[in-house]
Design goal:
With 235 residues, this protein is mainly beta. It has one domain. The chain has 3 helices and 16 strands. Strands 2, 3, 5, 8, 10, 11 and 15 form a 7-stranded antiparallel sheet that branches. Strands 4, 6, 7, 9, 12, 13 and 14 form a 7-stranded antiparallel sheet that branches. The chain has a two-stranded antiparallel ribbon with strand order 1-16. The longest helix has 8 residues.
Length: 235
């Protein structure tokens, strides 16, 4: 597998120059549809995961602040669906939670987010929303500063499907770098997948929309290194 990381110095200067409580080190754009494989029939046995990286290969360990996930719901039926709730079992990991991409997949932090509200939908309707999850005391493991996350489900009380907003791999990446594949566990172990060939990687990527922040101003030096680097990794 090949992955490329390119972050412009202009983006870095824009972030580092702002007087903010946090600095964005990873962000992609919702420009490539949604993927919503979870429903009341499979939620208890399904875990969804994805990953990215924010280092150059020689970056110091990086303390992170929070992760905002771009989530989505879709109603594949013709009748309206009422609002619902689910508990989300969130795990933040060293690289993809599968351990098959970059990083070990080891758990860095886990929590249960209870009673997440899911919106009502008309027949054939879909919607996106964001969820920000604090990451207290979490530090990435230096080098490429790989990170990943997974969502499991409990008490899924909803008549529609749940999943993620999806982004393009390159053209929609604002800062940091995403992986081409995402991961999923249906109860018998993780597997990874994309939505087409790597020759069409920008649009075939399974690249869940997310924003990762670090406390400011500690991120400025790491961001400056990232902005000057063009890193090509092959596995």
């Amino acid at each position: 597998m090949i992955r490329s990381a390119i972050a412009s110095a202009a983006i870095v200067c824009a972030f580092a120059g702002q007087a903010m409580a946090s600095t964005v080190v990873f962000q992609n754009t919702w420009d490539n549809g949604i993927f919503t494989p979870v429903n009341s029939s499979n939620a208890a046995s399904t875990t969804l995961g994805d990953s990215g990286w924010v280092g150059t290969g020689s970056s110091p360990a990086l303390a992170v602040q929070d992760l905002t996930l771009g989530l989505a719901v879709a109603n594949f039926g013709q009748l309206p669906v009422s609002a619902g709730t689910t508990d989300l079992i969130f795990t933040f990991t060293d690289g993809d939670p599968s351990g098959f991409v970059f990083g070990s997949g080891a758990t860095l932090y886990t929590t249960v987010i209870r009673d997440v509200a899911l919106p009502s939908l008309n027949g054939g309707g879909a919607a996106g929303f964001d969820l920000t999850i604090p990451l207290p005391g979490v530090v990435l493991n230096s080098g490429f500063n790989n990170f990943g996350w997974s969502l499991g489900f409990a008490n899924f009380n909803y008549g529609a499907n749940f999943g993620f907003k999806n982004g393009t791999l390159f053209s929609g990446q604002v800062v940091g770098s995403a992986t081409w594949v995402a991961s999923q566990n249906n109860g018998s172990g993780f597997f990874t997948y994309a939505f087409g060939p790597f020759s069409q990687a920008d649009t075939s990527a399974a690249s869940w929309v997310a924003t990762l922040t670090v406390p400011s101003p500690a991120a400025a030096a790491g961001l400056a290194m990232l902005g000057l680097a063009a890193v090509r990794r092959r596995r």
